[in-house]
Design goal:
By secondary structure, the protein is of the alpha/beta class. It has helices at residues 20-30, 50-60, 78-91, 106-111, 119-138, 173-182, 198-211, 244-256, 271-288; strands spanning 5-9, 34-37, 65-68, 71-72, 96-101, 142-145, 150-154, 166-168, 185-186, 220-229, 239-242, 261-266. Strand 6 and strand 7 (150-154) form a beta hairpin. Helix 1 crosses helix 2 and helix 8 (244-256) crosses helix 9 (271-288).
């Protein structure tokens, strides 16, 4: 029985003497299925722009997938993003996971002169962006007259060789319904969606998929979570922490909630050692347990 998918965060922080491609190659060697990066461009802390960084990573690796976790839609016009995504997916050999969100941090958009969108506009913008992405990826000339975004006979060549999976980081009622209606994956974070809330949130996604005539099993449910492998660490509500056996059991409980993928963000001291312990002492036990994963049409086996 196929096992779950496991991803690893690659920090966008700029540090002297470090290269994110080195971290990604190590993750590939350790058997992770994908690496991911967040999208926060504004701030005093030195960081890389995630799309450029993931392109650098894709060029330096051969197997591991690269995922945006998640791109804030207001930063990039959807039709331009469609071209960016097709190019990266093609040049990486079909390894892109396009994670999208409406944009959570208003300060960032205000600082960059992009304005601050209402909650309604964030969800509507996300929906329009997905329709434009899929439209220019599939139609010879695509015209779209949305409330927030428009295209006029947009031509994009070449077309993607396969459907590029779109995962959404969503929480609100309308956004969850949108995920079920249009997306290929749902990637909530432990800090914003604790386990006790997951059944209700997940059912909104899957229920919306069924109502739209889609197969809910084709939607990848991925849990984004902070983790600390450390026998001296006490569990925290927003961090999976403790000895490998304790961490394994908690992660197994997440699989029982219906998650078919997990993305890990190591926190605390000794992160490289934690990553190696996670790969060698935790993930094999989870894979051996045979946690099921349906292989949807947007995640080829």
């Amino acid at each position: 029985m196929p096992g779950m998918l496991f991803g690893l965060n690659v920090s966008t922080q700029v540090q002297t003497g470090t290269d994110p491609a080195v971290a990604a190659r190590k993750a590939e060697q350790l058997g992770f299925d994908f690496v991911s990066a967040s999208d926060h461009l504004h701030g005093g802390r030195p960081t890389y722009e995630p799309w450029t960084m993931l392109s650098w990573i894709a060029a330096a690796t051969s197997r591991i997938r690269v995922a945006t976790r998640v791109l804030a839609v207001p930063y990039r016009p959807p039709a331009v993003l469609a071209k960016m995504a097709e190019t990266l997916d093609r040049l990486s050999g079909g390894r892109l996971i396009l994670g999208l969100g409406g944009g959570a941090v208003d300060e960032e958009f205000r600082a960059f002169g992009l304005g601050v969108r209402s909650p309604r506009d964030k969800v509507d913008g996300l929906a329009e962006a997905i329709r434009i992405l899929r439209g220019v990826w599939s139609q010879p000339r695509f015209t779209f007259d949305g409330r927030l975004y428009q295209t006029d006979g947009a031509e994009l060549e070449p077309k993607p060789d396969h459907p590029i999976p779109i995962w959404l980081g969503t929480y609100g009622r309308r956004a969850l319904a949108l995920t079920g209606q249009l997306a290929d994956g749902w990637i909530p974070s432990l800090g914003y969606a604790p386990p006790e809330q997951i059944p209700g949130l997940r059912e909104r996604v899957l229920g919306a998929a069924r109502a739209a005539g889609r197969d809910p099993d084709a939607i990848t449910c991925a849990y984004n979570l902070s983790i600390r492998i450390d026998e001296r660490a006490d569990p925290e509500p927003s961090v999976v922490a403790g000895a490998p056996d304790a961490v394994t059991e908690r992660l197994r409980s997440f699989a029982e909630l219906g998650f078919t993928a997990m993305n890990f963000i190591p926190v605390g001291p000794g992160q490289q050692e934690q990553i190696e312990r996670l790969a060698r002492e935790v993930l094999p036990a989870l894979r051996a347990a045979g946690a099921p994963r349906e292989r949807g049409r947007y995640w080829p086996g």
